[in-house]
Amino acid sequence: MSAKPWSPSHVAALASAYTDLRISGAVKQELVALLVTKLNDVVPRMEQETLTHDSTRKTLDDPRRTRLGFSRTRGLMIERIDAVDSVSAAAVTAACEELELYLRDVLRACETVCTNNSMGTIKPRHLEEALSNLGVSLPDESQDVESTPIMVTSDPLESLVGGGTGIITPAILRQMARNFAGMKVENDALEELLELYYDEAGTIQHEMKKSLTGGNPAEFAPQLEKLDELAKMGFLSRTLKLAEERAKASNSRSITIEHILSIDV
């Protein structure tokens, strides 16, 4: 299955750390495309630097040595490596950092354009002008963001639950989601939900490690509570209930990926 880029809502949440301006929906989509295009440059360079440092290494590493979704970023990087066999956590962290700094620079350039035009919302024309000022062109979304043709398997969720041979099978996962939500959950919505779940787990792990290695130890307990909620399916239950509310509000008979993407988790 082709790796899916980050959701526009996730990138928008990240962007809020770099700008106080509102970002239109169209710009959110373009920002995702920009980050994917940037990753096309980041991975080959990191790969070359990794092999320059250790020509026998088979795992992409941070050659210099966060917070785009770890699992999404790793999946996209795996698709782009060529001379090594896998991608380490350090490499994903490094790529996330570079992508976030790139996003920060793009948004700051957008802020300058908006300020010059006395605008409080970043719109596509502002993004285009900002990118022109930076010497960057908008990527072709049809090539960089849309998924490549997917090889159909017996079940689209098998790759997310260990091939469907473990305790949690795709059928059990669907039933669990339906019990939480009270209505049918479309496959793509369930895939997106699981990606959010993995992202949340990665974020909690990062924050726990940070609190134990030079951060604030008092922050460890709240993260431990979040981890406990995650283990008890509280995150999935809460997110699905919110998605159910949005589905009912739109008179939908099932939860779609749009309902999941509209949730600020």
Please characterize this protein's 3D structure.
The chain is mainly alpha-helical and 265 residues long. The chain folds into two domains: 8-144, Histone, subunit A (Orthogonal Bundle), CATH 1.10.20; 158-261, Helicase, Ruva Protein, domain 3 (Orthogonal Bundle), CATH 1.10.8. The protein has eleven helices and six strands. The chain has a two-stranded parallel sheet. β2 (59-60), α3 (70-80) and β3 form a beta-alpha-beta unit. α1 (8-15) packs across α2 and α4 crosses α5 (124-134). 29% of the residues are buried.
Total beta strands = 6
Using the 3D structure, state the CATH architecture of the largest domain.
Answer: Orthogonal Bundle
- Major β-sheet strand ordering: 1-4
CATH class of the largest domain: Mainly Alpha
Helical content, roughly? 55-70%
Q: Return residue spans where pLDDT drops below 50 for at least 5 consecutive residues.
A: 145-157, 159-167
Can you give the mean pLDDT? 79
Strand content: under 5%
User: How many domains in all?
Assistant: 2
| Main sheet: strands, sense, barrel | 2 strands, parallel
Total of helices: 11
* Overall form: globular
**CA-CA gap between termini:** 25 Å
CATH fold annotation of the largest domain: Histone, subunit A
